[in-house]
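Note to self: keep these together.
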Amino acid sequence: MNRNLRNAIIAFLAPLPSIVFYLSFLRNYSSNSDPELSYIHSWCSNHPLLLANLLFFFNVNFLFWVIGLLQSSHWMIDVYWTVIPVMLVHYFASHPLGQYNKWRSMIVVILTWVWSIRLTHNYFRRENWEWGAREDWRFNDLRKQYGKHWWWLSFFSVYVSQQIFLIGICLPLYTIHSVDAPLNIWDFVSSAICLTGIVMAYFADTQLHEFVTGNQKLKEQGKPKIPNLDTGLWYYSRHPNYLGEQLWWWGLVVFAWNLGQGWTLIGALVNTLCLVYVTILVERRMVKQEYRAEAYRAYQKTTSVWIPWFKKSQVAAASKDKNT
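Structure:
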């Protein structure tokens, strides 16, 4: 069995413990006569958010971590970053404690599927349609940095941190399925923000993929690579893909805010702050690459970081540098 097929099978089988447990709970929670099981089902019924966290901890944090240790690669969390929100939205919609407007739920479920399909497609396109070809470059850097301690530190830095991020940014999905209120204009505003983010991220990632693929062909032909992507959405923003992703999550926050649950912005806020830090890491990495350092520094001076905007002229940028 080749590695690609083996990893695909592992990825499909990995979430089964949580899925089987939850489906069993849905089937039996109201009719089971066993007192011990009835207590467990009652607890699961009354604590949907805690149950989601427990399933995440044991199935993703622990099981995925063990698989990552056995394979010496924590690639699978990247795949499931695109899938877990879909699992969560269906979990919250199907939970016995859920109460919600069915039209709002349907809109959000469809949007979440569209977001997931878009991001999953981008992941596999980037990885040449292979399962587990490599792990995130940031994990590689941490592996080198922490050496023999990485095996246990990875549990917290790769998995526990992902639980905090994913459950946090998916809190609006929970509140959407906890409050039953009629649709209003803000639901359509939220949908527009989410769709704008999905479309922006799709075009930005597609333009980036074409740029990277083009450079690979130039390298194979022995020709110099183009140092920087400066066309399409990337002409107006240095990270339009990041902005698109942020619009998606903040669009979900607007859904929750409209239901009087503005506190759920905490997840999106933390995610945004983390992405600011990731942006800094990515840009430091870019200027360390000799063939593109000069071009990228010029790009930084003339182009907005996230928010698409008109370019500054080279003269204006140079003048500002002299003044500072």
